[in-house]
Specification:
By secondary structure, the protein is mainly beta. About 0% of the residues lie in helices and about 55% in strands. The model is unreliable at about 1-10 and about 15-25 (pLDDT under 50).
Amino acid sequence: MRGLGAFMRAGGLILLFTGAAAAAPTPDYELKLPDDAPARRFDFEQKDLDGWKTVDGQWGIEETASAPSGKRVLVQRATKNQFNVIVAPGEPYSDVDVSVRFKPISGREDASGGIVFRFADGKYYVVRANALEDNFRFYYYDQKRYQLASATVKPPALGQWHTLRVVAVGDLVQAYLDGKLLLDHRDSRFRSGQVGLWTKSDSVTAFDDLEIKAYPSR
């Protein structure tokens, strides 16, 4: 591999090589969209969810003193569904770089937050972290959930804000928790779709500062 800071560009994809050996447990490159890729941001300072689509769950904008920016955040409070999903406004995307702040508030069975991407016809990918488990995972959902990749982590603390990020270009997917690249996987079953947010079971979770950097599906 090439040295630290070297990169290779192929179409809209940038591979940034870190210089790590091929046998290292973490990837030796980082996916990156070009700096001029279109970006859309949601800080939830509005009082409604106009344009958002609730698939399952009880999603609402709430005022809180702990908001990372502004005064309001998006909170999911349903506790009896298997999965809770809300889809952000916007057209379907192919290549994406999505990040969000999330705070697991409570949950006995689960206390998770996740990013949904390439959502179409009820099928999607999701990357999620769980405050009750020491793993960070990548799944796809098609009538039920299937695990694609997992990394061992220190569980994100309840009651604290954390950052999730996923970058997907073609069949390459990389995911981060609190700024650390942890998952690197290939999967080609879903090519494009919308972006959303996710919780599981009895998770009560807050979200803020969602940013979608993406190219529309071609």
